[in-house]
Amino acid sequence: PRAATMSEAQASLAVLSKVELRVSCKHLLDRDTLNKSDPCVLLLMQSQGQWMEVDRSEVIKSNLNPVFAKIFTVDYYFEEVQKLRFEVYDSHGHAGVGAHDDDFLGGMECTVGQIVAQKRVTKPLFLKYGKFAGKSTITVISEEISGNNGYVELAFRAKKLDDKDLFSKSDPFLEIYRIDDDRSEQLVYRTEVVKNNLSPVWEPFKVSLNSLCSCEEKRRLRCVVWDYDSRGKHDFIGEFFTTFEEMQKAMGENKVQWDCMNPKYKIKKRNYKNSGVVVLLDLKIHRVYSFLDYIMGGCQIHFTVAIDFTASNGDPRNSCSLHYINPYQPNEYLKALVAVGEICQDYDRQKFSALGFGARIPPKYEVSHDFAINFNPDNDECEGIQGVVESYQSCLPKIQLYGPTNVAPIISKVARVAADEERTREASQYFILLILTDGVVTDMADTREAIVRASYLPMSIIIVGVGNADFTDMQILDGDDGVLRSPKGEPVLRDIVQFVPFREFKNASPTALAKCVLAEVPKQVVEYYSYKAFPPRCPQPDTPDSSLGSPQ
């Protein structure tokens, strides 16, 4: 049924989503005798039954209710249960984290799915052996980094800030908060501390547009400047409010500046002007799109299959032949074709180009390395997967299997169509070439050259090795081990070839083969269009005008 293939398609071409996690704690245990605990959070992920540390937050000095600035980014796979563990430790700086049990302030376990579904999870922290860590709780907030998002790079400095320290100058740092619809504030970023300086220049930093303003340019942001105190009692210098829309005036040569205000001084002091100014020196927007953004924007995946008709396959009339048509059981060529094609046809207009190579073809029985298996040179397209299967079965009796195994002509043929597409400068069609072959290619040098050329075009190549030949040399084409180069030494622009021997999937379900060979495609599509800086063709219909759905 159609529904099943669509869901398979979405599962196997599931675009990798990244999720941002932010962590805060309340009522942590106080482990230090003289001052409060200095908490730090470790994020661990379960992999094959073992907990592995993924990342850790900064240490917040002397604070039992910390809000960590660290953003943890995790990959989210819809089809997997991904277990997470958060562990809070009292850090002593020198010995590292987690050295002693008495530094452990508590842990919490959950799954990525739970946090994504609930958006915000608050749970008690547990010590060893299931004991509650007093009233301690941990809150994790998740935001999916969606495609229409991208990130922004900001560079701030301040001038003439108020001096809060008696014997030296202030040690300022800046915090940016997003004000949500329920008036609550979400910490977006905390800069480093610049010591002893009333006109600090902070390091430039990147934040996703999602976390900065929920992708709404007019959402209010509160920016606060503090004088750092090692005991955790930071002195308030001043604040200002702005929006991402206002910040964007800092693009190019322009700068934007705000008065940094202390509301108490404004009331008390008659001639109060400000407690310094904060300047946005530079703002750069980097847009990031996902595979689904391109698909939803109308990009079609055009699918071409190329079948090896060389003599090494064996006489199709003989039951030992890889091309034998068994009425009860599809051969390996058909199995591989159907497994991969069924998923691609949901992203295409149901028409597939089908080519053959390595055979003598009518009427003159000359060898061809790129003939249409429907014998229509003007239109090599078949109606859906079923059309390809029928053309394949009817062409077998008409051709003579021959050789050699040359695939460069077919790669170049699809590349010519992809090159025409590229000239439109739109993300409207991406080409996948599925090559089914029973042996190692003969024209390796030409094939490498053709792949290097193709890596600059909107196309990907999947090679499935059919039968029991030794495919060791074919692994060279799959750039996973190293970078594929042309005979002259020119590297591919991007890794576009995926090679798999069909025998590894002989006993697995067809979806396993498809999942494996198509796993890289979403990434390859996004890499190509990002390199070209082509956005998706049309903004998504549910995007409000104020959002950042399409490039300005």
Tally of separate domains: 3
Which spans of ≥5 residues are poorly predicted at pLDDT below 50? 1-15, 539-552
Biggest beta-sheet profile:
7 strands, mixed
Oligomer description = single chain
What Rg is obtained from the alpha carbons, in whole angstroms?
30 Å
The N- and C-terminal alpha carbons lie at a distance of 42 Å
The CATH superfamily of the largest domain is known as von Willebrand factor, type A domain
Mean pLDDT: 86
Query: Tally the helices: what do you get?
Result: 12
Q: Provide the CATH top-level class of the largest domain.
A: Alpha Beta
Helix/strand/pairing category: alpha+beta
**Strands, count:** 26
From the 3D structure, determine the CATH topology of the largest domain.
Rossmann fold
What percentage of the residues does DSSP assign to strands (E)? 25-35%
- CATH architecture of the largest domain, please? 3-Layer(aba) Sandwich
**Outline:** elongated
Fraction of residues in H or I helices: 10-25%
Keywords: Repeat
InterPro entries: C2_dom, C2_domain_sf, C2B_Copine, Copine, Copine_C, VWF_A, vWFA_dom_sf
Domain VWFA: 302-500
Pfam families: C2 (PF00168), Copine (PF07002)
Account of the 3D structure:
By secondary structure, the protein is of the alpha+beta class. It is built from twelve helices and 26 strands. It has helices at 2-12, 112-118, 209-213, 244-247, 263-268, 291-296, 332-344, 384-395, 408-422, 444-454, 510-518, 521-532, and strands at 17-26, 39-47, 50-56, 67-76, 83-90, 104-111, 120-126, 132-145, 151-159, 172-179, 185-190, 205-208, 220-227, 235-243, 256-259, 277-286, 300-308, 351-357, 359-361, 366-368, 371-372, 381-383, 400-401, 429-437, 459-465, 497-501. Strands 17, 18, 21, 22, 24, 25 and 26 form a seven-stranded mixed sheet that branches. Strand 17, helix 7 and strand 18 (351-357) form a beta-alpha-beta unit. Helix 7 packs across helix 11 (510-518). Keywords: Repeat. One of its GO terms (biological process) is cellular response to calcium ion. It comes from Nothocercus julius.
